[in-house]
Automatic annotation (TrEMBL):
Family to which the UniProt record says this protein belongs: Belongs to the pseudomonas-type ThrB family.
E.C. code: 2.7.11.1
Keywords in alphabetical order: Kinase, Transferase
Location of the Aminoglycoside phosphotransferase domain: 32-238
PANTHER family: AMINOGLYCOSIDE PHOSPHOTRANSFERASE DOMAIN-CONTAINING PROTEIN, AMINOGLYCOSIDE PHOSPHOTRANSFERASE DOMAIN-CONTAINING PROTEIN-RELATED
Name recorded for this polypeptide: Stress response kinase A
Cross-referenced InterPro entries: Aminoglycoside_PTrfase, Kinase-like_dom_sf, Pseudomonas-type_ThrB
Pfam families for this protein: APH
Entry's Gene Ontology BP terms: threonine biosynthetic process
GO molecular function: homoserine kinase activity; protein serine/threonine kinase activity
Encoding gene (name): srkA_2
Keyword NAD: no
Keyword Kinase: yes
Length: 332
């Protein structure tokens, strides 16, 4: 989180939010604070999730549309959290800060299952199958989704701040990355688009954004959801599995894993939904796009003095791939 935002969040504001959602103030735990502040809190003795989003990151309408889609999916048996209303019958509560900006608060059911790390014994083909299956189900169900009355449609992928304003976040000497971003956006926008290959998707389906109950995955963190090609939701699980688990491995080892992963993942996907046409051909574009958005967000969110050796290594490797129009893994 940016340091300027950190200074705005205090106990008084937090306890104000607890009151609006009837949360217990005697027991809570921060789970994350990268783009949002996420807490495990308790309501009537049961653990649930509280998320605070600063207005510099998302506006009220964006969060309302995110929750509208999540609740649509939840009601149709997709494994995603259900958003609760506050005591004011609102899914999102707004709290003004001392500088006139806002925090937006929402509360969700806690996902079932447990996290699975890349080095876990559960990071196997059974998980990859379940991963693809739930994403396939989500895509299939969403083909019939229309925003509820009064809900603003989620943004298109190319309206993302990290792409539009990348020049503001990266070093001035990285002008070539701004040009590469424009070129890739133009190329992706030329891809065929229809209801079977394009729609509202999660966009950030790495292993840190779901729990696994040994049979199914339970997805959360829809903060980045937008309208994009379905193939991106296939690319992102592969991208982060390579980045987190095979970053220091040879290209051959990466390739062996990628083939195993994609085979199991797409089999799971096909059990719920037809694979989007030409997805293999389009996969490299979305792997390259993630390099660009991650390069942008790492510069935006992490001050230079706070970047550890791993972050610096990622930034350097991404920069080289972006410069040379390469993906993290060359499968097709």
């Amino acid at each position: 989180m940016e340091k300027t935002v950190d200074t705005l969040l205090n106990d008084e504001l937090l306890f104000n939010i607890f009151g609006r959602f009837s949360l217990q103030s005697d027991s809570y735990k921060k789970l994350g604070d990268f783009e949002n502040y996420v807490y495990e809190v308790y309501k009537d003795g049961q653990p649930i999730i509280l998320r605070l989003t600063h207005s510099s990151h998302r506006n009220l309408e964006e969060i309302q549309s995110e929750l509208d889609w999540m609740n649509f999916l939840n009601k149709r048996k997709v494994n995603v959290p259900l958003a609760y209303e506050s005591t004011n019958q609102k899914l999102v509560e707004s709290i003004q800060t001392l500088d006139g900006s806002y925090f937006y608060a929402c509360v969700f059911t806690k996902a079932q299952g447990e996290p699975v790390k890349i080095n876990s014994s559960k990071f196997t083909e059974d998980l990859f199958y379940a991963w693809g299956k739930e994403i396939g189900k989500m895509h299939r169900v969403t083909k019939n989704y229309q925003p509820s009355e009064g809900i603003v449609r989620r943004a298109n992928w190319d309206e993302e701040d990290l792409l539009l304003n990348i020049g503001e976040y990266i070093p001035s000497e990285d002008t070539f990355i701004v040009e590469k971003t424009k070129e890739l956006i133009s190329r992706i926008n030329s891809l065929p688009k229809n209801n079977d290959n394009f729609g509202l998707i999660h966009t950030d389906m790495h292993s840190g954004n779901f729990f696994f109950d040994d049979k199914e995955i339970h997805i959360f963190d829809f903060d980045d959801s937008c309208y994009l090609w379905f193939a991106s939701d296939i690319a992102i699980p592969l991208y982060y599995s390579i980045l987190y688990g095979f970053g220091d491995k040879s290209q051959m080892e990466r390739m062996e894993f990628a083939k195993e992963f994609i085979s199991a993942f797409t089999n799971g996907y096909k059990s719920e939904n037809a694979l989007p046409e030409l997805w293999e051909r389009h996969l490299p574009y979305f792997l390259r796009l993630r390099d660009i958005t991650l390069y942008s967000v790492l510069h935006k969110k992490i001050a230079p003095e706070d970047r550890n050796e791993k972050i610096l290594s990622w930034i350097n490797e991404m920069g080289e791939r972006i410069k040379n129009d390469k993906a993290i893994i060359e499968l097709y």
